[in-house]
Amino acid sequence: MWSCATPRSSTRISGGLALLEVEGLAAGYLGERVIDGIDLEVRTGEAVAIVGSNGAGKSTLFRAIAGLLPTMEGRVVLDGKELTRRPAHRISRAGIAYVPAERHLFPAMTLKSNLVLGAYPGRPDPSALELVYELFPRLKERQRQQAGTLSGGEQQMLAVARALMARPRLLMLDEPTTGLSPKIAQVAFEAFEGLKSEGMTLLIAEQQVPLALSVADRGYVLESGRIRLTGTSEELDQNPEVRRAYLGVA
Amino acid sequence: MTEDRARSLPLRRMASAVLPILGAAAVLAALPSVWFGDSPYTTSLAVQALVFASYGVGFNLIFGSTNQLFLCVGALAGVGGYAAGILANETSQPMLVAIVVGTASAAIVGGLLSWIAVRRSLGIIFTGIVTLVFSLGFANLLLGQRDLTGSETGLIVEGVPSGLADDMVGGYYLFAGLLVAFLIVFRALQLSHIGWAFRALRDDEVAAELAGVDVARYRVYAATVGSAMIGLTGAVLAYSAGFISPATYSFDRVDVRVLVMVAFGGLGTLLGPLIGAGVFAILDEQLTASLELREVLYGVFVIAIFLFFRRGVVQAIVSLFDRFSGRGRARHDLQPSRE
Amino acid sequence: MRAVVLDGIVLGLAFGLLGVGMTLVYGLGGVINLAYGQIVVLAAIVISVVMEDGRATFVAAIVGVLAAAGVSVLLDLTLMRPVYHQHGEERTLLGLLLTLGAAFVIGGVLTWRYPDGALYIFVSGDPISIVGVPMSVGSIWASVIALAVAAVLLLFFGATTFGRGVRSVIQDETGARLVGINPSFVRTVIFALSGALAGVVAIAQSMSGPLTVNAGFELTTFALIVTVVGGLGSVAGAFLAGVLLGVVNSLSAHYIGQYITTIILLGAAALTILIRPRGLLGR
Questions:
Q1: What's the domain count of chain C?
Q2: Selected residue with higher pLDDT from C68 and B24
Q3: pLDDT band at B311 (very low <50, low <70, confident <90, very high)
């Protein structure tokens, strides 16, 4: 199971108490707010999608939650623990694993070293490594290869695998299909489905709405920095506005 | 009515352009009678300050105006000084010829360094390192070419009229005149289209390039003119002092001091080098006791200036003053050339 | 000729460590520490003072290394804070200027209090023959120490978790933060490490000849040359460049002349910047 040892206040059943709570979050660059008034929550075991077009603010939102961007207003709470304005490395150690679109791998280190570092500060237990190789067999083949020489799809897999090494409570994936061919993107989302069925809590930002909604239980539609809509993935899929704007349906 | 106003505007601009220079010239002209009192020691101190102020104007043109970190001010001055001195000693050319050759040599070297930096797209840091390497290399060259340069023992430069020696009032006026000339050139450039190009490329290089400013060319221009100023000063110094050695133009002695004093007075401003040179001359006077203590103080100054007074201590004081007196009007003479 | 080359290697090992110390700080934080040579001198002075006090050389050496590490940490915690707030070229420039100021302060204080200060660790014993060349015991000790430290560094960066963490910060700082590494803490530790290395260089160098209180600027220059030639940020590159330039220095000084030698070394740095800016092993 991917969920980590005995969560404090949330139950294991999907639909239980919120693991991640975001209230009134505002963030941006150089004094300008890119996102404002964001309220969202992710419950343990859920997969939540954040959909929106380019420039809607998805990455800004994720970076703010992960601590890479200082928040201007609002709160971020993980399992009752206040994470607002904490430095990124603290948020990582608190249990939020963020996989950005740019991946930020360590290019001159081997694939295996990248994974080992994922468990920082501790040394990873061998079972974590095994599980990751099971999930992404291709990575085991190339474990001695330098991360910078891997293909786009392999790098994406490595980025996700590295995030998993620390046994996070919440996995945030920012546009995981960036630079991937449709076939590999499909494979990636199948892997995410697998993770979810193992109990991992996921928060995924995606432009490709059908793909996102296929894995997610619920979703939020982000437009111009604000939450426009929210609902279960079925509701969003049926919503005429969503269909028109994102699914190319007249 | 409006015609009068339209006519008075360029007049006012001309006044603000010329006034600070006239003011500085007046102060410099009056200084000997007010302060020196016939003491050759004070005179030579003032001359030294003028020399550094002149170096500073050149450095301001290169670094202040076009962001090229030339850590070779001393070396450029040395090129001027030694070229002139060696030419004079080896071929007994008249003083004027030797000085022109010295100036031209420095201008060529400076322009070349800039051209190379531009061609290889060296950033500020690498430009700084390359020019520093040139500085140290040049110093070693001087030390190594014993026959030509006299190495550490130095070179005696003959042929200067005694009235212009660096501890005589004549020498003082010579350097003062040089400095004022440099200020005029600096101001003229500032107010011309060249100055506009400098400001554009300093603010945002990419935008300037897109707006049609040939960044490379203007950089080399600035470096060439600035180096000419520095070389000219070095050459005149060689004659005026009558004796030069590698120490006269070393990195420790020249570059660090020029950097600190120009930064103190305000990088990119017209009178910054003057004010900086003046302040540091007075400081040096007060601290003749311990050279090491002076070094420590320089270090503290460097840190303080680049941490707290990026636009120069002078500018900080001026803005404080302006804020108290409620005046928000821009003061052109002390404002860095961002118009 | 063999003797010259061996002397060059002995010198080069010290150069190498010097370069490693400087390149580490650059690789992690983008800062060129122009006060580095002065920190070496500081270590040397501290060691000589402690030795004059009657303590054993070994004890003095430890104190010197710790002092250098301590001063470096102080530098990082004070002057470097505003530097790290800047980014890219701005940061490197500010770091350069502030460390230059620090160099003057440290150097000035040292030359003021210890105007005749120098460290010379004399190791007694007859010369030992290495590949047919008689080498002084001091030189051999210096080389052994340098090699031992290099080996420890290799182990540290290659095999320990923290060492890998350091490499990760150099390669991708954001990625490091995402896996839970605090780059600020790592930078401070590395600053301390670079200080310790400066101390080791002081010890090694002073075994071959007196290290005077005025050597600061020269040492910084050598460190900068080695760092640039090896590739800014590359630890292996700095070490390799150090050894190579040490040999070049030795050969050139022996066969050509002192001043030309310095020009050659400086030229190597300039040529690297102009032709191959990433250096020998840089990325």
A1: 1
A2: C68
A3: confident
**Which residues in chain A have Cβ-Cβ distances shorter than 8 Å to C165?**
117, 120-121
Average pLDDT along chain C: 90
Residue C280 included in any domain: no
ipTM of the predicted assembly exceeds 0.85? yes
Does B120 sit within 8 Å of C274, measured CB to CB? Answer: yes
pLDDT at C105: 94
CB atoms within 10 A of CB B330: 11
Q: Which residues pair with A146 in a beta bridge?
A: A110
Percent of chain C with pLDDT over 70: 100
**Does residue B22 sit at the C interface (CB-CB below 8 Å)?**
no
SS3 category, A165: coil
CB contact under 8 A, C171 and A116: no
Instruction: Kindly report the average pLDDT of chain B as a whole number.
Output: 82
- Tell me if C276 sits within 8 A of C237, measured CB to CB: no
A123 touches chain C (CB under 8 A): yes
Closest to B264 in 3D by CA, of B82, B53, B44: B53
Q: Which residues contact C86 (CB under 8 A, 6 or more apart)?
A: C94
- Residue A16 CA to residue C138 CA, distance in Å, equals 71
| DSSP bridge partners of C133 | C130
Q: Does C89 touch chain B (CB under 8 A)?
A: yes
Q: Would the CB atoms of B136 and C100 count as touching at under 8 Å?
A: no
Q: pTM surpassing 0.95?
A: no
**Which of these, A137, A136, A115, A110, lies nearest to A126 by C-alpha position?**
A115
Distance, CA of C84 to CA of B180 (rounded, Å) = 41
**Which contacts (CB < 8 Å, 24+ apart) does range A133-138 have?**
A135/A161, A135/A164, A135/A191, A135/A194, A135/A195, A136/A160, A136/A161, A136/A191
Amino acid sitting at position C108? G
Q: Chains that contact A by 3+ CB pairs under 8 Å?
A: C
The tens digit of pLDDT for each residue in B175-215 reads 888 999 999 999 888 888 888 888 888 887 788 888 877 88
Catalogue all structural domains in chain A, each as residue range(s) with its CATH number. 1-95+169-179+198-250 (3.40.50.300)
Answer for the pair C171, A106: CB distance below 8 angstroms, yes or no.
yes
Tell the residue number behind the tokens 């636009």, with chain if given. B311
The verdict on residue C159 lying in a domain is: yes
Domain extent at residue C129: 2-275
- Which CATH number is C64's domain given? 1.10.3470
Domain locations along chain B: 2-325
Quick check: B334 pLDDT over 80?
Answer: no
DSSP class of residue B61?
I
Chain C closest-CA separation from residue A140 CA (Å): 20
